Amino acid sequence: MGGFLILGAVxxxxxxxxxVQVAVQKGRRAWAWAILGILFGPFAMFAVVLMGxxxxxxxxxxxxxxxxxxxxxxxxxxxx
Length: 80
Fold this sequence. Notes:
- By secondary structure, the protein is an all-alpha fold.
- 60% of the residues lie in helices and 0% in strands.
- Helix 1 (2-25) packs parallel to helix 3.
- It has helices spanning 2-25, 30-40, 42-50, 71-74.
């Protein structure tokens, strides 16, 4: 029984690492997605995989970010 618990913990941590790597590749904040990965495991991984890349300045004027305050939590800051 203890072996399955250890195996589950290792698999969960691997999922968190994959979640963070995908989030960084898509321009999202690594620490926010690490927390989501720890809490929700594979569900967070699937969410970040299905999400598109973070918007960066597009042609619609403005900053290209959504107006809601939660967007700043999940998207990486612009590099200047």
